[in-house]
Design goal:
Helix 3 runs parallel beside helix 5. The strands form 2 sheets. Strands 6-5-4-7-8 form a 5-stranded mixed sheet. It has a 3-stranded antiparallel sheet with strand order 2-1-3. It is globular. Helix content is 37%, strand content 26%. It contains 6 helices and 8 strands, in the order E-E-H-E-H-E-E-E-H-E-H-H-E-H. It folds into 2 domains: 10-59, no CATH class; 72-183, 2-Layer Sandwich (Nucleotidyltransferase, domain 5). By secondary structure, the chain is α/β, with parallel strands linked by helices.
């Protein structure tokens, strides 16, 4: 089967309201947006890309009154599952505080590694509120129950026990679930969906 050809010839990134940066290839655009909390869209023409970007901006909900204002967050990204994976830790504005490539693992492994790294970062910086959008990683940490068929189960069990121990020692830290449906993507999101 032939690879799907990319129809986009131009990519626009909103760098501030009503100000856009143009890229001719996805790799240039991806390099620019990586780790930034910005909106972007591609199209066959600049006009098409701009129309898509404006539609995306207009669909964006305003932040609800309960949108978090404190804390840091982590998220993972994979290319395939399992596949090459990475995590990043950001503040709530999307500024990358830490980023790491992990090799080939499952997405849940990468999510858990990101949470563990975020806790270590918080220990160094004094941050108290920690956000993750991973229901699975959070569930493993809260219950300690990891299914027998989980990919790389032994390593994941050790990671969960370490995280649980760190949270017990640093009991003023709170690990919370990011409410994606209410608040939109977590600021640490890689934007690959």
């Amino acid at each position: 089967m032939a690879a799907k050809k990319n129809k986009n010839k131009v990519y626009l990134v909103e760098i501030e309201p009503d100000t856009y940066k143009s890229f001719q290839t996805w790799s240039e655009c991806e390099s620019f947006v990586h780790g930034r909390n910005v909106r972007f869209a591609g199209g066959a023409t600049e006009a098409e890309a701009l129309a898509k970007l404006i539609r995306s901006i207009n669909k964006s909900p305003t932040r609800p009154a309960d949108y978090p204002t404190k804390g840091i967050c982590s998220d993972a990204g994979t290319r395939g599952n399992p596949g090459p994976c990475e995590y990043q830790i950001t503040d709530l504005n999307g500024t990358v505080l830490e980023h790491k490539h992990l090799g080939v693992h499952s997405n849940n492994f990468a999510e858990l590694a990101g949470v563990g790294a975020m806790i270590q970062f918080a220990i160094r910086t004094g941050e108290k509120i920690l956000w993750t959008d991973s229901k699975i990683a959070l569930g493993w940490i809260q219950t300690g129950r990891i299914g027998e068929t989980v990919h790389e189960r032994d390593v994941i069990v050790r990671m969960v026990h370490k995280i649980q121990g760190l949270l017990r020692v640093h009991s003023s830290m709170v690990l919370k679930k990011w409410q994606t449906r209410r608040w939109g993507q977590i600021p640490a999101d890689f934007g690959r969906k």
